[in-house]
Every structure is written in structure tokens, then in C-alpha cells.
Amino acid sequence: MKHWLIALLALPFALMAEERVITIGGDVTEIVYALGAQQELVARDSTSLRPALATKLPDVGYMRQLNAEGILAMRPTLVIASELAKPSLALQQVAQAGVKVVTVTGEPSLAAIHQKIATVAGALHQEEEGKALEAKLDSQLADVNEKPLPVKVLFILSHTGMKAQAAGTGTAADGAIRSAGLVNAMGNVPHYQALTQEGIVASAPQLVVIGRDGMKALGDEEAIWQLPGLALTPAGKHHNLLVVDEMALLGFGLHTPEAIARLRKAAQAIAQ
Amino acid sequence: MKMNVRRGLWLMLALTVTTALFAAGTGAMRLSLPMVWRAPADSMIWQIWWTIRLPRVLLAILVGSALAVSGATMQGLFRNPLADPGLLGISSGASLALACAIVMPLTLPAALALWWPMLAAFVGSLAVTMVIFLLSRRSRTTLSRLLLAGIAINAICGAAVGVLSWLSNDQQLRQLSLWGMGSLGQAQWSTVSACAALVIPAMLATQWQAKRLNLLQLGDEEAHYLGVNVRQTQRVLLVLSALLVAAAVAVSGVIGFIGLVVPHLIRLCAGGDHRWLLPASALLGAMLLMVADTLARTLVAPAEMPVGLLTSLLGAPWFLWLILRRRESGDE
């Protein structure tokens, strides 16, 4: 009888432990860790690099080139995938094989972070932890002053083996600059554009923002002011440079409010 | 000789079937054929094997043989052993249409969204096939001019894809370049049957022209005196091989070197008689792509590699060796 009782008590825990989750999308994986549900994770996609612990999990590939059999081989019971992975035949096949597939929004806006947390928490039955996380996010968002501040910001994207590019409209960097209430210096051109001397001088940025990885690709701070035209801009004259965590600023995940608050602070220091 | 070749063909068929069985029994999931055989038809194991792995193996067979037959036909047609299905610009036409579809996405119903890139690639390759067909109908267009036209088409499409990828955002760019590496990841029964409906009739029709293709090897004039309607035969074969490439490219992206290397291998062991060369190329192409795809599916499991990357990685050194060897033996 006693054994039975113990077995009965242990049953819900056993069932919970049996949930096997695969996350597709770096922001999704980060939220799962923040909810403290990482023990249910069995695999992740190749964009899930945060937190560092996540990289120890098996990698099911790049989110736009998933392999249905590979995913099913991990015997998941739940796949939480970013909208950016769709449309995907692999995810459709995974769903057909009887695995629950939950889609998380991929929109690059601050409002979307709430939605992401709510969706992931709901899928993992961690609503309370989700609420707590959203409250924490709210307090961080309160730090972000969205009041318009006319400081022109230039975001530079740089990868090894590629010419440095400036972020125009329709990019995640543009979304981040706007969320901080600031002005994108390249606000009149679409997408990422290669830096041209005259274009940069004309855009007259007061603050240059670059990712930590981009900085590494270029070398050091001096190398940044050597980029075409940059030395002739207001930012170049005063060496106004902000080095940010690219994934935090552009990923619209949990660390984005913090990164945007830093961006705002740097801009305010210039405006004074 | 003929007896030997026929026996060789049967041997290759047996090898292809063995390879297919091996490929169907290997993958990220531990699903061996005996396990699948014993599993009931409504079990998960059977479902996964039937809806995911089997279509993929069949698609590898179709695409591999289509590329190889088209390569063999074009090499015969142009009497140039370096001709390749990519030569006439069919795959670049497909990639241009695909780039348009990716960079300027329409809001599509979910049911169509998955098919959209495939449809676009197919329309693109058909458009280039049409251009080639119309050019070949003009009385002044010789095969060598057509070859130059192919180079021009390649250049135009390449430039346009360049413009589109310059306009594209991060994700679109990544999707475009992944497509260029080729993958059989779109395999499902509907894709397989659509591809088969095009590839199988086109291959049979090509085989039917094999004897005339042999006569064309003697030169246009000689073939004409032997009773071949040279221009018509060339046109038919051109369109057939273009269709084969179109069907392959639409479902799998750009998979390199199968069409170039396979016919060479066969010619080395069985000679240049197209009646044998074409079916043997089909079998070897199917085998090679099945092996490459099995590697692509399993090497980095649970993820997968682009299979076109593997075939090019293995094919390119072989191609180099082929060129160097030709130079040495002086049979230019």
C-alpha cells in the first residue's frame, strides 16, 4: 500500500520529467532557460547560443534548414519554434508524427518580447514563472525612455570577410534605435548598405554603435574611425562609440531592454 | 562486348537496389529495415519511415538519374565532354526566379507557402528552356551559338541574382545561399510524384533517341546522310535534357557535378554507345546521389548538411583530375 502511494505521488513528477522539448530560435531557447525549464530541453537549433550552457545540447541545424528525421530522432514531445523558421516542411512533418509544435512570434519589436514569453511559458505550463519574467521585463522596460531624443545614431554591421555596412530602415537595428526614441542616421535608406564616404558624412551620426563581434572583426576602436568618412562625422570628432552585445540589441529577446536602455543612456550623455 | 555491357547494366541495377535499401535503412533515427518490416502500419516507426525517409530516397534516385542523363545527353549533343546541365543557364534561370520569390515575398496562404519556392524555381527553369527552344528553332542558330547563348543567360541571371541578394535582408540572403548548395529536404510524396511525372517520361523519351544521338557523334553532315533529321533531333534532345534539369533543380536546388562526372565514369568503362550510356548514367547518378544524401543526413545528425555541397566537394577534385589526365594523354 505504502509503495503504491509513493508511486502515485511520484507520478506527476515522472510525467513532467517526460516532457522532451526542442527549441528552434535563439530567443526561444533563452526564454526557456530564464523560465528555469532547461531540464526539459533535449536539443536546440544552431542559432541558440545563449546561455552558453545551451551549446552543450545537440544541435538540430540551422532554423531554415531543419531535418525532420533528425528532430524526431531526439524523441521530442514538444517543439517550440520561432516564426522565422517557417514555412518549414520539416516542422510540418514533425507535427504530422504527433509531436506538438508551438510557434513563437518573430516580430522585431519590444512588444513582441511579452508575447514570446507568454507563448513559451504557456507551452511549458510554467505560467507563473512566465508572469514573474514578464514583470521583470516590465521593470526593465520602464527604464527605457521612449521620449523622442534627436540624437542621430549609426549602427555598423561588420563580419569577418565582409565590408562594414550601415543599418537602414527595416532592419532590427533600426527597430532598436527607434525603440530607444532616437533617430537612425541612415533613416532614408532601406536594409543594410555598404559604407560610402559621402553617404556617411552626409548622414552626420552623433553616436556610432557597433556589436562586440563586429568590433573584433574590424580590430580595435581606432580601426572604426578609419572606416570611410566616419572621422568627419560629429561622432568621429568626439569619438562617440558604443560597443553593444549584438545578439542582445538585435535579437529582441530577454536582454534587449537592457541593451536599449544602455543605448538611450549613451545618447543622453551626448545630448547634454 | 554487347553481352558484357548488358551484364554490367544488370549488375548496376542490382547495386542501385542494394544502395536504395541501405539508404532507406540509415538515418538519424534508428530505423533499420527489419524493424520497419516488423512494425505495424499505424505505428510511429512505420509512419516516419514511410512519410519522411522513403520519399527522400526516391527523390534522390529521381534527381540523381535526371541530372546524370541530362549531362550525358548534353555531352553527346554538344560533342563536348565538358558539357554540363548548368551550361545552358537552366539552373541560373531557376535561381533567379527563386531569388525573386524570396526577396519579394507575397502574402500567401499557408498551404501554398511551402510550395512557392519550388514553383518559382520550376517556372524559372522552364522559362530558360523556352528561350533555348525558341533560339534553336531559328535556322541560323548553330549549337555553338546556343552554347554562347547559354553563357550569356548564365551571366544575365547571375547579375540579376546579385542585385536581388544585395537587396535582400540577412535571412533571405541565407535562404538563397542555402538553396544554391542543394538539398533533398523538400522530399514528401507530393514532391516525389510531381518530379517523377516529369522525369520518367523525359528519360524514356531520351532513351528512345539514343540511336540518333549515336549517329550525331559522326558529325551533323554524316548524320544527315545516314537519314537523321539533325535539327529536329537536336531540338528534341535539348528540350528533354532541359526538362530533366528543370525538374531536378526545382525540387532540390543546385546539385553540382553529378551531371558532369557520372557520364564520364560510364564512358571510361562501357564506351560511348548512348544506348548503354544513358541507362547506366541514370543508375550511377541515382546511386551517387543516394550515397551523398545518406552522408548529408547522417554525418552531422540530428542536423543535416546541404547535399550539393558534398557532391561538389567530391566532384570538383575528380573533375580536375579528369582535365589533367586528358592533357597528359593528349587526346584533346
How would you characterize the overall build of this protein?
The complex is a heterodimer of chains A (272) and B (332). Chain A is of the alpha/beta class and 272 residues long. Chain A has helices spanning 2-17, 26-34, 68-73, 89-96, 110-123, 127-143, 172-179, 197-203, 212-218, 221-225, 234-238, 246-251, 256-271; strands at residues 21-24, 41-44, 78-82, 100-104, 152-157, 165-167, 183-184, 192-194, 207-211, 241-244. In chain A, strands 5, 6, 7, 8, 9 and 10 form a six-stranded mixed sheet that branches. In chain A, helix 2 (26-34) crosses helix 5 (110-123). The mean pLDDT of chain A is 86. Chain B has helices at residues 2-24, 33-38, 44-77, 90-103, 110-113, 116-137, 143-167, 170-180, 189-208, 210-216, 220-225, 230-252, 258-270, 274-298, 307-329. Chain B is built from 15 helices and no strands. Chain B is globular and about 65 Å long. In chain B, 45% of the residues are buried. The two termini of chain B are 26 Å apart. Chain B has 332 residues and is mostly helical. In chain B, helix 1 runs parallel beside helix 14 and helix 4 (90-103) runs antiparallel to helix 8 (170-180). Classes of the chains: A alpha/beta (272), B mainly alpha (332). Chains A and B meet through helix 3 and helix 4 of A and helix 3 and helix 8 of B.
Helix content of chain B: over 70%
| Mean pLDDT level of chain B | 86
**Distinct helical segment count of chain A:** 13
The biggest beta sheet of chain B reads:
none
Give the overall pLDDT of chain A as a whole number: 86
* First and last CA, distance of chain A: 75 Å
Structural class of chain A: alpha/beta
Order of helices and strands of chain B: HHHHHHHHHHHHHHH
Shape verdict of chain A? elongated
